Amino acid sequence: MRMSKLFLRTLREDPADAEVASHRLLVRAGYIRRTAPGIYSWLPLGLKVLAKVEAIVREEMDATGAQEVHFPALLPREPYEATGRWTEYGPNLFRLQDRKEADYLLAPTHEEMFTLLVKDLYSSYKELPLTLYQIQTKYRDESRPRAGLIRGREFIMKDAYSFDIDEAGLAASYDAQRAAYERIFTRLGLDYVIVSAMSGAMGGSRSEEFLFPCEIGEDTYVRSPGGYAANVEAVHTPSPEPVEAAVVAGLPAAYVADTPDTPTIESLVDVANATQAKPDGGAWTGADTLKNVVVTLVSPTGARELLVIGLPGDRQVDAKRLEAAVFPAEVEQATAKDLASHPELVAGYIGPGVLGPNGTPRDSDGTDSAEGAVRYLLDPRVVDGTAWITGANAAGKHVFGLVAGRDFTADGVIDVAEVRVGDPAPDGSGPLELARGIEIGHIFALGQKFAKALDLKVLDSNGKAVTVTMGSYGIGVTRALAAIAEKTCDDKGLSWPVQVAPAHVHVLATGKDEAVFTTAEGLAAQLEAAGVEVLYDDRVKVSAGVKFADSELLGLPFALVVGRGLADGVVEVRTRASGDREELAPDAAVARLLELLAGASA
Amino acid sequence: MRMSKLFLRTLREDPADAEVASHRLLVRAGYIRRTAPGIYSWLPLGLKVLAKVEAIVREEMDATGAQEVHFPALLPREPYEATGRWTEYGPNLFRLQDRKEADYLLAPTHEEMFTLLVKDLYSSYKELPLTLYQIQTKYRDESRPRAGLIRGREFIMKDAYSFDIDEAGLAASYDAQRAAYERIFTRLGLDYVIVSAMSGAMGGSRSEEFLFPCEIGEDTYVRSPGGYAANVEAVHTPSPEPVEAAVVAGLPAAYVADTPDTPTIESLVDVANATQAKPDGGAWTGADTLKNVVVTLVSPTGARELLVIGLPGDRQVDAKRLEAAVFPAEVEQATAKDLASHPELVAGYIGPGVLGPNGTPRDSDGTDSAEGAVRYLLDPRVVDGTAWITGANAAGKHVFGLVAGRDFTADGVIDVAEVRVGDPAPDGSGPLELARGIEIGHIFALGQKFAKALDLKVLDSNGKAVTVTMGSYGIGVTRALAAIAEKTCDDKGLSWPVQVAPAHVHVLATGKDEAVFTTAEGLAAQLEAAGVEVLYDDRVKVSAGVKFADSELLGLPFALVVGRGLADGVVEVRTRASGDREELAPDAAVARLLELLAGASA
């Protein structure tokens, strides 16, 4: 490749909409270009990197025995209707109609289609296990596309699906994919943490995410010194043991006290300490209060339901944990209209008395209605026998010493309070730390959800029809590319590892001396003859400074600079990542580059 | 690849919806599978062929210096609005809205996006010429998807776009792409005819189609002994010289005669011969009659307009020529409602008197209205001074000797009559023959249509902004694959040329003898070590007959059969296309296959 002909324009200015380094630099270096929100075009250099990332993914998939197929992106509604996902995906799904007004979608993932294809072709346990995959363009109408390729609306995914006759088979298929993912991310040069995950839309029994640890990541996960790691959504808070009956029996009766102007936990704690003695003689803290948070759940069909979540006052509800817990419903703030038929909910002073089973009777189907009590779920820490300060359902009043199980009950448990640094890991492996990461892979032991919905059965060795057990395994290919850029870039530009770089060596001819260009051209040819991919900056009338800046921005792993030193018989070999520079005779420089490349690929 | 593990099921029955051999066999052989009308999934063997076809296209594109990029399929409306194609594409365009109700489309072709990208990056004539391409999934909501991959709604296209500063540059870019297309189709093993074409939706000055000659093709083209070749839509009918004034002066006056029960040209000719003498004493024929055909044009915005086409009664209107001539309007049969406000159109007896400039005055904007006369266009053969029998606008009456130019005029010319075998080629190169073909490539010298609409200018050598001149060049990649299948298949199945076959040699182990399987396995390994792609039929409990049938259906170029003969020290080498069989010692068979493969790739 010659820069004089390459379809490229580097930008000195950051694009206005770019929040993260990979996005900023991929655009500035002319690898990608924004076409619409969350939708990008690939320019020549970007497409070369993408092809190399895809090739590594493909090789490792093939090595597991997975077979590549390719499904359309434009799919009919019916299979997604059968599994409920046509509705469940809500506004994240791009939907359209064809000229005959038949419903179609742009596939966000292809479980349904793979299930139907296997059903179409296979009928016996002898044909299993089977793992199929594709590297394909996917669509999700994200509400907030952001960070360039990291959260886009059109993106490339590798999705694989395993089909087994039983759970043991699924476990083996799952492990094979998990191991392949470890090899893939290692080859791509991406660190990863494997965290337990909620399976969300997928259902199923086991699910893990591969996260690239990174400050700008959207996924928060926790880890413990003992090796526990989980997506924040998946952290399970163990309930403390219930308080012993004898202790509960000794607890004083609850009483209502005036607590004017205490709409917040902080103000409540202040007033409590100023006016009410704590039975154990200590000071009241936020952990003594039971906060009741009102939200509205919107089901995929659009039905709205109020929900109150009771949790210790020193903890917040974590929005992502809540979203995951109530899926497929979505969470919205309760509107004035939602609240209008519930005058019993006194803002800032809500308490259990009017909620859930302690409230007025609800409809027989258990759902909320204008006449019924609002559903009430409690944090796992609020075990029977614990005493709380909580709202008395009247402005300016709280109740003190209200005992769970004795004075109130709830409709159930919901584990959506924030996870905090220092919380104990659920497996006893020590205090949790928080970290952020980008989800680059996700593997699911789906089980039979899709096979049941679409009736995928095969005959077992006794001739009996049994439902197939499935797994699904995704890698965000374009997102992984962005993660590599994010990891390796610096303030000067991109810095690709050899295995995914658009070319290996950037040959720069600087100055105006014709001998420089002749020598550079010869060295480029020598390198190419040795199988090295070269980008040759042969531009005339472009200053050395601009060429150096472009070279650092484009981020090829090595550069060979032919310039002023040539008069003294030397050229310069530069290593982008380390910044190392070596002056060498031209032939020695070629040999050195071959050595560096061999070392980098090893 | 081993058949025992390959995700494949061959079918003995033809799929019900398959009209053509390639479709039937690609489905039966497990290469593709229908997902929705005109939308197909690719199974492992099909995907391997597709990858090889793509690789050949990519190599030849790269060899022209064209640079590969990749655009999204999901695109915003605005650029297509700017060029008018959002509307022009009519119901062929898949349109959708995102969650914010912004309009999007699934791109049928990407002229707009390439134009905008070049505008975004380039600004000087020094950066031109430039040719960019992509191999990408395209969408068209065909009204009649058919013939499997030949006319689909989601398909893969290679589309390239050239950018030049002037017409001479465009001509050079066009010729380079044209030459690359010749190499591509030759390498794919596809015969092709290059025909002049209408540029249709594209506008522009020069346009040629690459057709694969084939009975099942949807494109009819004409050719002459002297080398003329054109798409039927593009055939230009030369007008005869106008009749000399002196001759016209001697023509008798027109007169109306009763011609009851003559709704067809045949019945009219019969009645004319029975009741009216022809001035030259001969017999009336269909060529003496002027037939007036009513159609409705529907504009992209949905407006309906009646149009009457006058042409010699012995010719039919060609639907495709008409469609191309009135593009972007679409043609429909005139409905009773369309006709209701035009009682002057008497079915079977329509004549010029009530039409076009001879009719009652029309609206000032020239369009049809309930009060105005219907637009009237004439075949080029109806030159001034020619005399005709035509409708008298009253049931059961025709007018005889009505002279064009003397007695009636029209709004213009429309060249949409059928082209017939034996018609003279427009370039005088002899009588035309008709043939059918599949359009596998199309190249357009677009000129400035898109650059003007989207304001793509660069500075020329004088620092003056000039509009760029473009070309666009498409290959239907999935369609070309189907054309190869169509060309090479026979009644037993597919028969791939080596360069696109999913593998080179099909090794078959037949019988139950363990030595057969051991030997077959060893020979497969030997071939693979020599770089040969092998599909090994290692299935046990599958009869030799089924294996042979599958092998012929899958259509690998060569087969190596290890079976009964092994006891006598021989195996069989089969060539799929010729049916040749040779018995050889195992090692000699491997050598022979290497020789055959070298010959086939040469």
TrEMBL record, chains A, B:
Pfam families xrefs: HGTP_anticodon, tRNA-synt_2b, tRNA_edit
Keywords of the record: Aminoacyl-tRNA synthetase, ATP-binding, Cytoplasm, Ligase, Nucleotide-binding, Protein biosynthesis
GO biological process, one term: prolyl-tRNA aminoacylation
EC number of this enzyme: 6.1.1.15
Domain Aminoacyl-transfer RNA synthetases class-II family profile intervals: 33-497
Protein family (similarity comment): Belongs to the class-II aminoacyl-tRNA synthetase family. ProS type 1 subfamily.
UniProt note: domains: Consists of three domains: the N-terminal catalytic domain, the editing domain and the C-terminal anticodon-binding domain.
Identification of the protein by name: Proline--tRNA ligase
Organism of origin: Occultella aeris
